[in-house]
Amino acid sequence: MPDKYNLEQIRQFWTQQAVQHGASSDASWSDRMMIELEIQQVLNYLNDGDHLLDIGCANGYSTVHFAQQKRVQIRGLDYIPEMIEQARQRISHEAIDLKGTIEFDIGDITSLKEPNETYDKVVVVRVLINLREWSYQLKALNECARVLKPGGLLLLSEATLQGWRQMNRMRQEWELTEIPIPPFNEYLDQDQVIQSVAPELELVELVNFSSTYFVGTRVLKPLLIQALGTTIDAANPAAEWNRWFAQLPAWGDYGTQKLFVFRKR
Questions:
Q1: Are the C-beta atoms of 60 and 90 separated by less than 8 Å?
Q2: Mean pLDDT per 10-residue segment, the chain (265 residues)
Q3: Which terminus of the chain is less hemmed in, N or C, by CB atoms within 10 Å?
Q4: pTM for the complete prediction?
Q5: DSSP bridge partners of 38
């Protein structure tokens, strides 16, 4: 497994992603189908009239989708200035039809400047895994709880150790090599997260929304390529194979990415 990045290396990585990919969803993740699955999962919990904080909004790709589908007031934050620059350009230069309103700003999830108990919903998508270690991740979770109104929801879409291990167990059964955790990520122990925030946040649901998609694209797809002896790129997320699996219902617990739905007590 490659050496883990330190916090400055992680910052540099995401700055490079912002510069390289601009307004593309690739700036956040190259797997466009997974991003679309995440957006749909989060939308299930958003209501018209919500005051929403989207932390780690990157270049605003998902944020804009939320405001196109729901009449919400969104404040999007990211700690990479280049990401926020792209996000602001997205809503100022593109002809986009929004039901809700959006503003973007630079912000650090471990030290939010937002007032206490301000938001109906807080959305955090693949942010905690970029904080290098548990102490920072816990600090970020506490900040999310602080800015939520009582009864408000924290919608946390993050990669988990449990899902990663399950997915790799299935790969190993078919003699596929383990997919490593990227060096800029620190996947979450889902049990540790749930127990640590329990005094303030009640778990409503843990959604294994990526399970079928991961089985199809991280297990079946490479196995088929191997069996056929072709040179098809198994990691290509734009394949019709990926799009088809993204439309199937989620079964099992083989997906690395999961959605934690917490309600503030």
A1: yes
A2: 86 97 96 97 98 98 96 98 96 82 97 98 98 97 98 98 98 97 97 98 98 98 95 93 97 97 98
A3: N
A4: 0.95
A5: none
